[in-house]
Write a structure and sequence with these properties.
Layout (H helix, E strand, L loop, with lengths): L1 E8 L2 E8 L2 E8 L2 H7 L7 H14 L16 H10 L8 E2 H7 L6 H9 L12 E2 L12 H10 L4
Parallel strand pairs: 4-5
Antiparallel strand pairs: 1-2, 2-3
Helix pairs in contact: 4-5
Length: 157
Amino acid sequence: MNNNYIFKSPIGLLKVEEEDSKLIGLSLQQKEIDLIQSQKFVQHSDLLYEAYQQLNEYFLRKRKQFDLPIDCKGTVFQKAVWNELQNIPYGETRSYEDIAVAVRNPKAARAIGQANNKNPILIIVPCHRVIHKNGDITGFGCGTKIKKYLLDLEKIN
């Protein structure tokens, strides 16, 4: 059974989805109507509530790691990239080339970018922590403004 919950966050409406007691999606929503429709007569699972709580803690800088069961659906290569993204510590970044080397495909920097773009679980699988080797932060599906916000949020003071 697929269940979801849409809620307001500092970056906009986030939709968290679960299937078989695992998170399968976290995405930015563009329409306010989605929030209204999702709130009608819906009972949310413990997992969706826990994801909501942990994300709120993240935005308040009270959480640096997520402890949620996830299931990213994708190709073998995409899953390898997404697994590697989860190894990037809070407050740090890696280049596309760094991730390519880590997944043992050093010439695949562009493919890393494409896998990041297909990441089904934003923030929890931190694709926003991948930047260009020169420090440029372009190439984020939700836009560079949100990517910069997330990177700034994670800066350790």
